[in-house]
Amino acid sequence: MASGRTYRIDDGRKGLAVLGSTGSIGRNTLEVVRRHPERFRVVSLCAGTNITLLKEQIQEFKPEFVSVLTRESAEELRREYGGSVRVGYGMEGTIEAGTYESVDLTVSAISGASGLVPTISAIRAGKDIALANKETLVMAGYIVMEEARRRKVRLLPVDSEHSAIFQALAGHRKEDIKRIILTASGGPFLRLPLKSLEKVTPDEALRHPNWRMGKKITIDSATLMNKGLEVIEARWLFDVSHRRIEVFIHPQSVVHSMVEYIDGSIVAQMGSADMRGPIAYALSYPERIESGVHSLDLINARFEFMSPEKDRFPCLELAYMAIERGGGVPAVLNAADEVAVDSFLEGRIGFTDIYRVIREVLEMDVPSRAQSIEDILNADLWARRKAEEVIRGMG
Ligand code: NDP
Ligand code: MG
Question: 211 versus 77: which is more confidently predicted?
Answer without folding.
Answer: 77
